[in-house]
Amino acid sequence: MAKINLKLLKKEAQKEIKKTRDLKGLNEVFNKYLGKKGELSLILRSLKKLPKLRRAKIGSEVNELKDFLKIKFEQKAEEIKEKIKQKIEEKEWIDITAPGRKPALGHLHPLTLVKRKVEEIFQSMGFTVIEGPEIETEWYNFDALNIPKDHPARDILSLGKTLYLKAGGLMRSHTSSVQIRYMEKNNPPFRIVVPGRIFRQESTDSSHEINFYQLEGLMVDKNISVANFKAIIEEFFRRFFGKDTKIRLRPSYFPFVEPGLEVDLICLSCQGKGCSVCSQTGWLEMLGAGMVHPNVFKSAGYNPKFWQGFAFGMGLDRLTMMKYKINDIRLFYSGDLRFLNQF
Ligand code: DAH
Description:
Elements: H1 2-19, H2 23-34, H3 39-46, H4 52-91, H5 110-124, E1 128-129, E2 135-136, H6 138-141, E3 170-171, H7 177-185, E4 190-199, E5 211-221, H8 226-241, E6 247-252, E7 257-266, E8 283-292, H9 294-300, E9 308-315, H10 316-324, H11 337-340
Parallel strand pairs: 1-4
Antiparallel strand pairs: 2-3, 4-5, 5-9, 6-7, 7-8, 8-9
Helix pairs in contact: 1-4, 2-4, 5-10, 7-9
The structure holds 3,4-dihydroxyphenylalanine.
């Protein structure tokens, strides 16, 4: 009888140990079988009534079962502890092989990229990069540049494009003003380029903005001619757009140069054959230039009998639009990431 009971007890105890999920539950099962009032203790106590021989036999069997179950309890307890540990580790687990979160890095604006490239090319030809103020006086923006008082650009009313300030002065309408500022403080010979933002009252469209960027150039020495200008500007376009680039010079008029020139670049889309980009002319107007007017030298305190020089001014926005085939100048100032992220 007792033997069968032990077998059954062993089976049931093992089953219950297996089922437990936590240490508390395991403890309850332990008490049920091995505790002071547990089933095995009760059996041992009840052995007193049995005859000696039988008592010894069953007693040793019960003790064997006790030892057996103790080991099972210990194993289960280890198992549960291990699982708890794993759970904690899982929560705090760091996958050191996972790729890091990429910081959102910004990048340079296309106008800045082009400005830097242009500066680099001119610097390699001996030009120094100079800057000047965006708020100007009429003297630096107009008078000193030989622009007469009645020039339409100076019109304060609707005709003019200059933005005058209530407090006096104006937003510079071109970078040519820096020519005078530089010459006042420096003696020839020199070569400078002046990149900078300029401001105009415009009705905006795909090729007009109320502000944009120019690059002014000025080279002054004893024997400077249009030939020097042509060599420099041709070299610039070759390095900027590629070896095959061709330019042509055409007479033009600006009050601060004499003679005045306009520089055309062979159309990059049709190589001069004529297409919609160049209005069938084969050429694209790129910049104004000329030999510095004697009156400009006089304004800056130079003797025009000793010095000669060329000056030029080009639009950096236009250059950028041509380089990257951008069809609307307003995109530069829109802050639209769909546009900006392409650079
Ligand atoms: N300042 C002129 C403009 O804004 C561009 C220009 C033309 C600059 C001829 C020059 C020059 O230095 O010589 O349209």
